[in-house]
């Protein structure tokens, strides 16, 4: 219609006469979001002259000043229009005069413009300015706003899409009135005086406005200049050529309107009657200058819960020629009834030209709306994202009745701006929601899902609507069918829902029957309800919030419980006169402050978490399932009455230091079970827990039918004592799992001392709550014992034996004089013993230096020797330890015919030594970890004698028996480990004596080489036998609890072994001899016992 208007008017417009004002006024410029000046607002007070001079004989002067609240509200309304309207090129701001009046009303209108060359057509000045075909007159206003003595709200300006205060919505009233000045205004009049209530004789003026040109009568016919109007109470006689509204079915239409309505209705309804279908209330003498969509702000209905225009009404403004990017404010609207639609229309930011969406980018328009469902009995699947972050943005608004909204899993509905609403259900009854996707309203004052009819934009004292509720002038009225029932029948939620102010809010006028929270749901924000109304039976109309019903394949709740349901909700649930929570299945954790009508835990379901429940005195908190405070340890407080049925169970966790607790501040009617689940901790033998530590009530009736407990422990026992529980352990609690007598000794002493010794709590706890088969305890007892030190002692004795063997394997001097020698040696072995001993591996490396002298003519040589060595001991599993030993030794020795090839020979040696030792143990079992360590200085003493006899074998060989006896003494002082107090040991001093005899056979053979060199070889075999006890005793105690002491009996030496050795050396010259040797021991406890050395002898 824009083209038609411009064609009719051209560029020659004449304004109706206005008289300019020479008085002062205040001026504000209203800007759009692009920073352009849309309106010049001139504010007139009582001393500023006439703000409306259309009647020059009686100009209108403001009787009172508009206060700051009014200015803010009016400015906000104009800013909304500035955002909606596209301004033409070369536009200068339209002038709007603002004044006051004493009437109980508000209005806005503009000067009418006409063109003599195109009769029968008029246009408001404001429309002409926005068409860009009229530049305006700075001395005259393009529109006038008058504000009267209405009961207007004084609340702060906000962008809500619902009226909120109960008073006339100031912002909405001005927004409505300026729409008239923008062109929603008819050119119809009658011949009656202004204040007459007689039946009128309406007719169209000869000059028709764009709005009038879009009107149609009951027959779908357009009006004509001067045409009479027929209606059921009008006085005009019947004329077939008249504009026929006798059925009051008139409407406005245009191309844009038809696009939006999509066949749902012939056009936007208008009414000639004050009350549609009720002629007795007379004619509305504004004559079809209002739209009559249900509850519309632009209607003349007495109840309106819109504060802005619907999409169809915005389309009507397009049809009367205004330039508006409608898709910036509306994604899609459904006005039809019985529609099934997979809506693929999204809502996003617009491109710079306002011609297309930018998918994925948030729309920033004020009061944008992604999807509006106006009609009834529709099933709409929202299959595209709706993304708004503008002030007052709403994802989906649903009015009408009996609509079903489906939100698939992949769909996002975000309203992230100030006062954003993800879902807003604002009228009707029996709506259903199935939400599997994501709904968010995380901006300031955002609500994820709002169920609220809102207040009446014209003042709720006049008329107020809600579920089963219509109040007019303070009196209840008959409820129309559209309000006979709950606003929401079922809200099935298995997706994500969040809101900064609330995830879900139910207003005091909206009844919601069922909110079903299903598997997969994630809720951030409170759930609140102000609803507090009773049915005809005087029972409260309740909202049932269920957790854990089973969903069908379409995401709808079934009546069955879902045993796999799992959810944690950390918000508050508040609605003491409305909200009844049911834990229907699975496990639900509620954590917050909850004010409820009642709560019920069904059989098979579990409720846990940290919460305070305040229960309406009309009902109670009922447990027929499992009630468990905390998410680990925690508390529940129930302010109200509590009932536990025969199938109910309270499950509390407890330890020696913490426990769950339920406190009923009211009457507790008890039955069922109170069950304690004892948690890992250190329990002294005989520890007790009283019932009143875990459950208390102001008053009780009955008692728990059973007091039970669980304790997942291989060592502890728990039993009921009548008013609580006690824990004990048997004497063999630990020893029964020991793999050896040594380990059993540790276990027995631990059990005997378990009534005290807090310092060992970590060890007790780890063993008491290890695997129930006791395998961890067997491991623990070995690692806690002193077995690693026994292995170290055995390794030290074997090391000293190895040092003694080095000297025995050194040949004596065959000439008088001095001989020095140096030899490097090394050895390793792996000791594998029975189950009462400690398997370990040892590696030793060292060097021996010595010198000896043989007097001329003597068979004896005397000498001194010293050695240095390092030994590394690895103790095998389960003990897991490492030791490093550094030793020094100094000794003297004597040889008798050590060089002899035939006859007797002998050796005697004596040596003392010092050892620097370190031990690092690794204790790891059942979650307990420790690294005890120690260091010490030990001492050694060795004494040995050897004799043999050689028979010659030819000129260069010999064979003969060898006898030896070796004594060793080893001392390690008492020590105390460092490390965790629960496992570090204090060990008594260790003094070990060993005496070993050996008998064997030695074979030697020499080969003379050139240049006086000689190659010497030997082969030996000997049987070694321990003559003293092969075992050692090690006494130890826990350093922090020395009363828990134990001793162990471990092997220290091989009882016997078969030793094999061989050597080869080269007499390089008369003074120098080089050689190497190797030996091993068989048939003993050692495995892979191999030794070797490289030596050098020098005579001088």
From TrEMBL:
It comes from the Bacteria. SMART domains: Autotransporter (SM00869). InterPro entries: Autotransporte_beta, Autotransporte_beta_dom_sf. Pfam families: Autotransporter. Residues 1-24 form the signal peptide. Gene3D superfamilies: Autotransporter beta-domain (2.40.128.130). Residues 810-1100 form the Autotransporter domain. Keywords: Signal. This is Autotransporter domain-containing protein.
